[in-house]
Amino acid sequence: MEDTRLELFGFGPHLMIDGYHANPEKLADFELVRQVLDQLPEEMEMTKVLPPVVQRYPALPGHAEGITGVVIIAESHIAIHTFPSERFISVDIFSCKEFDLGKALRRVVEYFEIGRYETYLINRGKEYPKDLELARQIAAGEREYIEARIG
User: Which SUPFAM superfamilies does the annotation name (predicted)?
Assistant: First the structure.
């Protein structure tokens, strides 16, 4: 299977997944959400610091009921928010080290049987000083680009 790591810079990647048309039974499965948060760090070669914390929340006026969970990893965190009645899931995977983005996406889609998804990827802490000179060059280049675009 192809490793879909991207060359990243700064503090680390933050992958956000918005999943639509997911299996509502799986989204409502408290134990599945806990299991995914428990297993995904190891699957992504990350280090779990604490066991997952998972909470079912009731429907409130204007809001759907669902499950929210988070696991703290040495590299940062993974969070899952499910909305079974809407067949929607939101997942954040934030890490200070590179990870296989495609594998993470595939696993989440498989676990919750997501029909359609959108992904967003942000390189967090672009000026984080892993290599101070490189961070300065990246920031200067981005500032030049923006100034040229907005005049």
Answer: S-adenosylmethionine decarboxylase
Catalytic annotation, pick one of 21, 81, 85, 90:
81
Catalytic hit among 63, 76, 77, 85: 76
* 77 noted as active-site residue: no
What is the rounded (10 degree) CA torsion for 12, 41, 110, 69?
A: -90
Is 95 marked active-site?
no
CATH topology of domain 12-125: S-adenosylmethionine decarboxylase (3.60.90)
Domain residue ranges in the chain:
12-125
The residue annotated as part of the active site, out of 14, 77, 90, 96, is: 96
17-60 confidence digits (pLDDT tens):
999 999 999 999 999 999 999 999 999 999 999 999 999 988 77
